[in-house]
Amino acid sequence: MGNIFTQHPFIAPTVPISDPTDGLLQASDLLKPIPVDISIWDDAQPGYSIQIKVNERLVGDSYVLTEDNHPGDVIRLLLDHNCLANDGEYRISYRATNHWNGVYDDSPQTTLKVDRTPPGAALLAPLIFPTASFGDRLIGLLPGYAGMARGDVIQTLCNDVPGPAHTVAADELTLRPIEIGFDRELLHSLATDTVLIEYIVTDRAGNGSTTSLPTLVSLQV
Predict the structure, then answer these.
(1) Which SS3 state, helix, strand or coil, does residue 59 take?
(2) pTM here?
(3) Beta carbons of 196 and 171 less than 8 angstroms apart
């Protein structure tokens, strides 16, 4: 309905709990209202109202500016987490409305990313050990798993004791298996002739996988 703030354009809202690189939210944060910070523009007047938009749709209650709100101040509104019910990307903005004549403007958008899907789907394959013998290190190969992505943390377990961890890099998202090295000292510290090696995966959103199928490794070779 026309631009009522032509001299002082809006700043896109920010979501302080989202990842600054791509807007990813932690799965645990999606269980409660999401804070959205809005910077008050220079032409703001008491009585103007602000309302959050999600994918171009107005949601929640309006916030009405008062004499206590000044240009440059940041107000925090809470976005109902139920508005982010599905996995995917969401465009977050806000609408400012002049209460005297109903004219409004919309701010630029901020992108949020929602991911509640655990990596690996229903099954994680066991680590592969191409050779039974090893010197100072035993190398395990992980061919990949459903939903593998940059930033996933692969945590190994050796007889239920945390072993080496590996963070997936962008250049590992290929057909080349990921290599995870197990030091001889670590394995022998378990004081057993055989080691049951498993792993779990936690993605950047904090979703944890099931435990992988195990591999039994003998230390007697």
Answers:
(1) coil
(2) 0.86
(3) no
